[in-house]
Amino acid sequence: MFKIVASDLDGTLLTPAHKIAPYTRDVLQRLHQQDKHFVFATGRHHIDVAEMREKLGIPAYMITSNGACVHDADGNLVFQQTLSPEVIRSVVEMAKHDPDLHIHMYQGDRWMLNHENEALRDFHDSFSYHLYDVENPPTENVLKVFLTRDDQDHDKLVKWEQAFNESFGDKANIAFSTPWCLEIMDAGVSKGDALQAVAKALHLTLADCIAFGDGMNDAEMLSMAGKGLVMGTSHDKVKQALPDNEVIGSNADEAVAHYLEAHLLAKA
Predict the structure, then answer these.
(1) Would you identify the family this protein belongs to, as annotated (predicted)?
(2) With bands split at pLDDT 50, 70 and 90, how would you rate the model's confidence at 156?
(3) Which of 108, 111, 124, 194 is 20 to 30 Å apart from 80, CA to CA?
(4) Are 96 and 136 in contact (CB under 8 A)?
């Protein structure tokens, strides 16, 4: 029986309105009462996730920025891996000439953005961005850089993925968290490696983990966990990358919570 439950957030655990629904909250609280460890495993920033954890009302490890940061159940930072200044400067220099791109960074406790974009605030309750100058971008203590477009054109972002892979090789881990969000982390960063570190800290192994996700940034975690579940609404690339993994329903239907109640919660 699995002792650690790790879940991605957007497109997986959260509703399409980016909230933890009441039924999901109830299931996770009951899991905690039955001595299961819950782990947030997301591309979101740790400050953003800490607010969710507080509202959820249970202790939980937080894997954030796609594995660049890990906080324990008490909120202590236990792991952090930042991007090299060389990669950051190169990404910004390459991308700044496309006026349709939003170039984001998570730097320390701050979310940095090169353009105003009010629509992005809908993803967060109180965590908001600060603007920076692409001619003098932050390069220290940057956890990840990520690109979005207002038109959410996946094919145009794929061209950037190819360009970055050609430019950086083994210096960066580049993955889509959603079809419209391309993320760049240090080469040694992934949710899978972070989950392995969490399991070790709990004196358990990856075989004790069940994980849920919907993006290519979840692929390592879903392949490394004892059992990895793919959301039915995942992009075809995710399903093709993990052809042997079980596919479940939609985040709109709280498929993660329903699966956990059916397969992991002890019956009263």
Answers:
(1) Belongs to the HAD-like hydrolase superfamily. Cof family.
(2) very high
(3) 124
(4) no
Residue 9: CA count within 13 A, CB half-sphere: 24
Please give the full DSSP string across 135-164, using - where no structure is assigned.
TS---SSEEEEEEEETT--HHHHHHHHHHH
CA–CA distance, 164 with 159 (Å, rounded to integer): 9
Q: For residue 186, what pLDDT band results from cuts at 50, 70 and 90? A: very high
Strands 69-71 and 77-80: antiparallel
Half-sphere exposure of 128 (CA within 13 A, CB side): 9
Rounded CA separation 20/5 (Å): 16
pLDDT in tens, 77-134: 999 999 999 999 999 999 999 999 999 999 999 999 998 877 666 566 667 889 999 9
Please confirm, yes or no, whether 26 is among the known catalytic residues.
Answer: no
Q: Residue type for 184, please?
A: I
Backbone phi and psi for residue 166, each to the nearest 5 degrees, phi listed first: -65, -35
pTM: 0.94
Catalytic-role residue among 8, 10, 186, 214: 8
Q: Which residue has the tokens 């959260």?
A: 14
**pLDDT attached to residue 126:** 67
Q: pLDDT for 201-226, tens place per residue?
A: 999 999 999 999 999 999 999 999 99
Q: What is the DSSP letter of 244?
A: T
In order of 145, 154, 180, 205, 223, the CA distances from 158 in angstroms are 16, 6, 9, 34, 23
Residues 268, 265: Cα–Cα separation, whole Å: 9
Domains of the chain: 4-80+189-263 (3.40.50.1000), 85-186 (3.30.1240.10)
| Phi, psi (deg, nearest 5) at residue 61 | -70, 150
